[in-house]
Design brief:
By secondary structure, the chain is mainly beta. The protein contains five helices and 114 strands.
């Protein structure tokens, strides 16, 4: 086995010592199996007290701080801390994740509670707003959210009878919440005269809207509705931290260490004082209590769990213990017994029995304990203290032998010599002190005076002759003992074996270091020589298991999760049966069972948990050396970067900025856009260079694929194309619906979109956005077609599952740190999927709103390889993946069964058939396989000799890399990396359907002067000639030595000039593409070439280094050089009848030269337009002054071309837009028609010789687009065909004055938008008379109010307040609203101000709906007969105002004028107008 491979031995978590009692409450419950569930560190623990056995949930990635039990007492919800905290719901029996909720909170989840039905879960965050979130936890869907309070919330509870009522409490407040629709509405509790305003620590709800709450003073407050009705004084002597409601009554626990039991009416039953029990102690504080049947579980602040039997409650049983609050640093194991000791900043040292999983004894210390060590004979225990002192205890009675104080900084390292003669102590001050055991621990010397930092690691040699140290700056030293002399002889060092190894530097442990750079996050090490393994604890909370010794850097390892804080120490037990680890700030001791190589975990061991962490009990992916050499195509795919500085969605923002800088006067009329138009006619190209599995047969037998920003539906019988043009940037992936009538495509973008569209009508069905950044690289439909999975290309490679018809996200998770190439949904179970990518395959399970995963385990069957494609087999757990090595990996569940050699090189495509599979690889072969992937039935080689006569083009080379393959309609469809699409008959012949350029930007384009032919040249080093007639094929191709940048036909069409990237150019025969002449006078690439007008006597060659060379074609000599000056030359054009040359430069200069002499000419701008130019391809000058948009400086316009009749100009820009203008383009900012199709910049545009067509090339999208020119006539409508320029319609005559006023209207938002009326009353306007004045908001819109401190008004007399009722409203809002007046029966309903009015026509009376907090802007009535008298109204609001309500719509019953539904929307000012329609 390679020294860099991961060990075959494993670890299994066996026991966790501890319980998180500090900073938490109500985190201890009985399950249906009478087990106790709680948490410590990042582990959920299920403890069986009868069998003294633990099970573990390991789905969290950080400290768990909250827990709730489902009403069925089987499911558990836990919430964690973190930048992006999650809530996990898991099964306490199977320990599998049931649901994950994410994206609701930041910082952490402080409280959790299930409602009485178990359908909803509420969570409270640790963010600045202490947000409340209500979840449909089964779907992981956020139903409602609201700011909780300005200060910390400690507890939350649901009403047991009303599933829409909640109560939360915290620092000096209690709030009663109502869930209505997607809105949580709070109302403060009114303390009144019955009690003081104080902090409420816990709360419990019961029937009849009665709520009991525990206070900081020890009183219990009893609430009826919103009002405090009575106080149970001195329920506890001090703060009440926990309150539990059950069928028997209530149980409370407090800081006084007492448990009190109460009946259902909250009358006292009994009291238990834990401080006076057998295991009690002073200052014991109860943080959690759970009463279930005859048993009561109690959790304390210092990490103990007690259990009481109600009949014998005076005899509590101590079930488990742990350290209290304070960092845990000290860990040592007994040299001959299954005993370990830990020491903590809680000023205690504790001895643990590893066999019994229990605490043996506890020793109190005066200072925090930072280090511990057993003597070799096991009789003494040395403890290093935080204050720099050292204490030695006698094990048998824990009496102190000696106390030494030599240092003032903490002693954090202790090691006895193997012979028991000396004790070495390392402190944060630097040197290591040496104490003689025989001399009663007298200091006999020190070493390490030359150390640059504090001692971090310490080890003795086996013969006690040497001591090795390593300091915090990585300096490793060895010393002779006991003299402390520095050792310099390396041979002397190597000759002595070491009794322990904890230093991360040294030949034996080199593998723990990364291959490059310093050691990262290594906190502690310990080697097991007998087990041949090395354990490492790191600063991220991971335990890593390496082989020992491990000599090669970057060795592989197994990684285990559980700790939520840096692992401060790891130690093997005396017989290496267990590994012990402690977490610094998680205060937990973990005991791991060691399973040697060759043995397997027993059945009692819990299975590996599905997890959110990067790995769990699996091998690392750090080793690269054992992999095959990285394939060049795969490397290119990995490095492919779709991120851009400016995305197309930025265009709208840039246009707005341009309008703000300089508005066009309304009086300045712009010409209308041209009456002619363009329509996309044909596209040459297919994106196969960096995509895969993006080619399919539709239901009708057409072929669907993509190139640039175009989804193409190709009819292979008529050789015609139809297009989906809904995308505005490069499409990266495509998936076909199982019914083969819908396609999904994902694109590049800052907020990347996924479009689902109909392949027949080409209309979009759904657009998904808001989850992926930079791009979407993979898509897959579920077997039923209802779900769609997308994978992003950002650093997180986010995996998202959608219910695409509704546009709802079902679940999401970070995919992998390395690139993901492909995703596939399990056809047998839509909740399962797999992803493959760089050296990994992951199997996913939908769990609520999240996804959990398990990595594929290759074991000894094969080595981990990069996976490029995958499919599922006939059964739920059978899958196949194509690897970079050319093997097909066969998986059963997550385990690799076998491999099959399928191709010589990477397998890029794998497609499942009804009875078999078809594969395609880099070797240019297509293989048909049987349904068990055991036998290859037939292979097809993609060769030029196999092309059928009806092929539409020429193959560039034999055996091109196959990127996509599918089978249907009796044929095999193949897409290649060279941009070719072929149809292969099962008998062997193949037809080339479509082709385009390979990867490399396409810059050169020229239309033939007399024929429907054009030429293109690209950085892929090919020159191609295309037929533009109905045949639409490539006529000829020639490979070039260098990439090409530009080309141009001669006036007679017989020659073709080609400019190359190395500064050279060619002139070739246009028919044979053979060289006529070639020159190289420049070093940078050629930017433009142009023959002079008839008869093409001269050739102008422009270069990027700023020169234009003039060549005489017949003599093949350079006759002149034009030097424009600074900047490169972008475009050149000849005058129609003379030697005048027009030059555009990169510095936005328009210059003129007498070409044959190279002499610059100054021509007034007024004369330029009067000259007759043979062509106009420049972007500067008065004739094209209007092509610049408002936001542009002109540099983003790459190309232009005037039509031969001189009436139109077409341009291409960096945003992929092709624009059509009238010529000359009178400015500024002339109107145009613009068209999408290209993904990135449009590098060149050309008119054909007869102006019947416009040709355009995209740079990186490699596509050649053919646009048909539809002359002055009424066009047929084509889906998403074009749109007009960005100028507003005011240029056509302006707006009506009323419309203009309404268009520019602004709606200020009130500074307070809290409802000043109750949410549910029989009649609007009647308010409770005991509402506090401080709770009422200001009605001012522009000024905020000062924060008010709620005062205790106990004992103060209040003046009675007269109530008033709204009687009549004069007014109707018609100035800026519409369709806001409706008949309902014999009444009319309308609105004004923030009042909805129902006006009786018969009596003239009005009734009012008064729940809005700001101006109502819109109103609609439900016309459905099932929902009579239902009205929806929408108001102004600011979502960013923490105290206010956002724009909302309210569904109201007019019979009672009661709120039936309230929904917050995402609309923001200044436009908060809602258009609401019922369906």
């Amino acid at each position: 086995m390679s020294g860099r491979s991961a060990p075959a031995a494993q670890l299994r978590l066996e026991w966790v010592y501890g319980y998180r009692g500090h900073q938490c409450r109500n985190n201890l419950h009985y399950t249906a199996g009478r087990e106790i569930v709680y948490f410590v560190a990042g582990v959920g623990v299920v403890y069986n007290a009868r069998e003294h056995r633990q099970k573990f949930f390991l789905g969290h990635t950080d400290d768990i701080i909250s827990l709730a039990l489902h009403p069925d007492r089987i499911l558990v919800a836990t919430g964690q801390v973190g930048r992006e905290p999650v809530v996990c719901v898991w099964d306490s029996y199977s320990l599998q994740t049931t649901s994950i909720m994410k994206d609701g909170h930041t910082h952490g989840v402080a409280c959790l509670a299930f409602d009485v039905t178990g359908e909803f879960l509420v969570s409270v965050g640790l963010d600045a707003r202490n947000s409340l979130c209500v979840w449909d936890w089964k779907r992981g869907r956020l139903l409602a959210t609201a700011p909780g309070h300005t200060d910390r919330i400690f507890d939350i509870s649901w009403d047991p009878l009303q599933s829409n009522r909640l109560v939360s409490c915290g620092v000096k407040h209690i709030k009663f919440w109502t869930l209505c629709g997607n809105t949580l509405t709070p109302r403060r509790g009114v303390f009144g005269k019955m009690g003081d305003l104080q902090t409420i620590l816990c709360v419990a709800c019961t029937r009849d809207q009665i709520t009991y709450s525990g206070t900081l003073s020890g009183d219990v407050y009893v609430w009826k509705g919103l009002n405090l009705t009575r106080t149970i004084q001195a329920a506890h002597a001090s703060a009440i931290f926990t309150m539990h409601a059950c069928e028997e009554g209530f149980a409370t626990g407090g800081r006084d260490g007492c448990i009190r039991l109460w009946d259902r009416e909250f009358k006292p039953i009994s009291k238990v004082d834990l401080t006076g029990s057998t295991h009690g102690y002073a200052n014991l504080s109860v943080r959690s209590v759970c009463w279930h049947g005859e048993r009561i579980a109690v959790g304390t602040q210092d990490g103990e769990i007690f259990e009481l039997v109600v009949r014998d409650r005076e005899q509590p049983v101590l079930l488990t213990q742990g350290h209290g609050e304070g960092e845990l640093w000290a860990l040592a194991v007994h040299p001959g017994k299954a005993i370990a000791v830990t020491g903590s900043d809680d000023r205690s040292a504790r001895l643990w029995s590893l066999n019994e999983h229990s605490l043996l004894t506890r020793c109190a210390a005066e200072q925090g304990v930072r280090a511990a060590a057993f003597s070799p004979d096991g009789t003494h225990l040395a403890l290093g203290m935080r204050d720099g002192s050292l204490s030695v205890l006698r094990i048998r009675d824990m009496s102190e032998v000696v106390h030494v104080w030599e240092r003032h900084a903490a002693i954090h390292l202790l090691r006895f010599s193997p012979d028991g003669g000396y004790l070495a102590a390392g402190s944060l001050e630097g040197p290591v002190d040496l104490y003689s055991v025989a001399q009663r621990y007298k200091k006999v010397g020190d070493c390490g005076g030359n150390i640059g930092g504090a001692i971090a690691y310490l080890d003795w040699s086996l013969d006690s002759s040497f001591l090795q140290t390593e300091d915090s700056v990585g300096q490793r030293c060895m010393y002779h003992m006991p003299y402390g002399k520095l050792v310099t002889d390396k041979e002397e060092i190597d000759a002595s074996p070491w009794a322990s190894w904890s230093c991360p530097r040294g030949a034996e442990v080199a593998g723990v270091l990364p291959r490059y750079g310093p050691p990262n996050h290594i906190m502690s090490l310990d080697a097991s020589v007998t087990g041949g393994v090395l354990a490492v604890g790191d600063g991220l909370g991971f335990i890593k298991l390496y082989r020992f010794p491990t000599f090669q850097k970057g060795s592989r390892f197994r990684r285990y999760i559980g700790h939520s804080a840096p692992v401060t120490a790891v130690r093997w037990s005396h017989d290496c049966a267990w590994l012990l680890s402690i977490g610094g700030s998680d205060h937990a001791l973990f005991q791991w069972r060691f399973i040697p190589e060759g043995l397997h975990p027993t059945e009692s061991d819990a299975p590996p948990q599905e997890t959110l962490a990067d790995s769990n009990s699996e091998e690392s992916s750090s080793d690269q050396s054992e992999m095959a050499e990285l394939d060049s195509d795969i490397e290119q795919d990995m490095q492919n970067n779709v991120m851009r500085q400016v995305y197309k969605e930025d265009l709208q923002r840039l246009q707005k900025q341009g309008k703000e800088k300089g508005q066009i006067c309304a009086s300045q009329r712009c010409e209308r856009p041209p009456s002619d138009s363009l329509r996309l006619h044909f596209v040459h190209g297919y994106r196969g260079s960096d995509c895969r599995n993006n080619l399919f047969y539709t239901q009708t037998g057409e072929v669907v694929y993509h190139v640039a920003a175009v989804g193409v539906v190709y009819n292979r019988h008529t050789h015609s194309q139809r297009f989906y043009l809904g995308h505005d940037d490069d499409i990266l992936c495509l998936a076909l619906h199982p019914a083969k009538d819908y396609a999904a495509t994902g694109q590049v973008g800052r907020d990347a979109q996924v479009h689902i569209w109909d392949t027949e009508t080409l209309r979009p069905l759904s657009i998904l956005r808001g989850e992926h950044h930079h791009g979407v690289c993979a898509l897959a439909f579920s077997a039923d077609g209802k779900r769609l999975v997308s994978v992003g290309v950002s650093n997180e490679n986010l995996v998202v599952m959608w219910e695409w018809k509704r546009g709802e996200k079902i679940a999401s998770a970070r995919g992998h740190r390395d690139k993901i190439f492909f995703v596939q949904v399990n056809p047998h179970n839509a909740d399962r999927l797999l992803t493959v990518g760089v050296k990994h395959i992951r199997f996913w399970q939908v769990t609520g709103g999240g996804l959990t995963w398990r990595r594929g385990e290759v074991g000894s069957v094969a080595r981990c390889d990069t996976m490029l494609c995958a499919v599922y087999g006939r059964s739920d757990d059978l899958s196949y993946s194509g690897a970079a090595s050319g093997d097909v990996y066969v998986w059963r569940g997550v385990a690799l069964l076998r491999t099959v050699k399928a191709h010589d090189g990477p397998i890029f495509s794998l497609h499942a058939l009804e009875k078999g599979f078809v594969t395609g690889g880099k070797d240019g072969m297509v293989g048909l396989w049987d349904d068990s992937f055991e036998r290859c039935l037939k292979t097809y080689a993609i060769k030029r000799s196999a092309l059928a006569p009806g092929s539409k083009g020429l193959l560039l080379e034999d055996n091109p890399s196959v990127r996509a393959v599918t089978l249907g309609h009796g044929h095999i469809l193949v897409g290649t990396r060279n941009g070719e699409i072929l149809e292969v008959e099962k008998s062997g012949p193949m037809t080339l359907l479509v082709q385009g350029h390979m990867q490399g930007e396409v810059w050169g384009l020229s239309a033939h002067p007399h024929l429907p032919v054009c030429a293109t040249v690209s950085e892929d080093r090919t020159l191609r000639v295309w037929d533009l007639s109905d045949n639409h094929c490539m006529l000829a191709v020639r490979k070039l030595k260098k990439g090409g940048r530009c080309c141009s036909f001669s006036p007679d069409g017989k020659s073709l000039a080609v400019g190359l990237c190395d500064g050279s150019f060619l002139v070739v025969n246009a028919n044979t593409l053979e060289d006529v002449l070639s020159f190289q006078h420049r070093r940078e690439h050629i930017t433009d070439v142009k023959f002079s007008p008839d008869p093409g006597k001269y050739l102008a060659v422009a270069s990027h280094d700023g020169f234009v060379d003039i060549y005489h074609v017949l003599t093949s000599k350079r006759v002149a050089v034009c030097r424009p000056g600074a900047g490169f030359v972008s475009h050149v054009d000849w005058e129609g009848h003379g030697p005048l040359l027009q030059v555009n430069t990169g510095t936005q200069e328009l210059l003129f030269f007498e070409a044959t002499r190279g002499k610059r000419q100054d021509i007034p701008p007024s004369e330029v337009a009067q000259l007759k130019w043979a062509s106009w391809t420049g972007v500067l000058g008065i004739p094209c002054a209007g092509i610049r948009p408002l936001h542009s400086d002109g540099s983003d316009i790459n190309t232009a071309c005037r039509s031969h009749d001189g009436h139109l100009l077409v341009t291409g820009d960096d945003y992929g837009l092709v624009k059509l203008f009238n010529f000359p383009v009178k400015g500024p900012q002339a109107r145009c028609r613009q068209y999408t199709g290209h993904g990135g910049q449009v590098t060149c545009v050309q008119w054909t010789y007869d102006d019947s067509m416009v040709l355009s090339t995209g740079g990186a999208d490699t596509a050649l687009l053919l646009w048909s020119h539809e002359r002055d006539r009424v066009r047929e409508w084509h889906p998403l065909d074009s749109e007009e320029s960005e100028l507003e319609s005011e240029d056509d005559g302006g707006y009506d004055s009323d419309i203009e006023r309404e268009r520019r209207a602004e709606f200020p938002v009130r500074s307070h938008a809290v409802s000043i009326r109750p949410m549910a009353v029989p009649r609007p306007g009647s308010q409770p008379k005991d509402s506090l004045v401080e709770d009422r908001p200001s009605s001012l819109r522009s000024f905020g109010t000062q924060d008010k401190v709620q005062k205790n008004n106990v004992g103060k007399k209040r003046k009675p307040i007269e109530d008033i009722t709204l009687d009549h409203v004069f007014g109707y809002r018609g100035t800026d609203c519409r369709n806001n007046l409706h008949y309902i029966n014999d009444d009319i309903v309308y609105h004004t101000a923030s009042v909805a009015i129902v006006h009786s026509l018969s009596s003239g009376n009005q009734t009012f709906y008064l729940e809005h907090t700001d101006d109502i802007l819109c109103l609609t009535v439900n016309q459905h007969p099932k929902f009579k008298n239902i009205v929806a109204t929408g108001q102004i609001g600011d979502l960013t105002d923490m105290a206010g309500k956002p724009a909302c719509f309210l569904s109201t019953s007019l019979m009672r004028l009661q709120l039936s539904h309230l929904a917050y929307t995402i609309h923001r000012p200044p436009w908060c107008l809602l258009s609401v329609q019922f369906s």
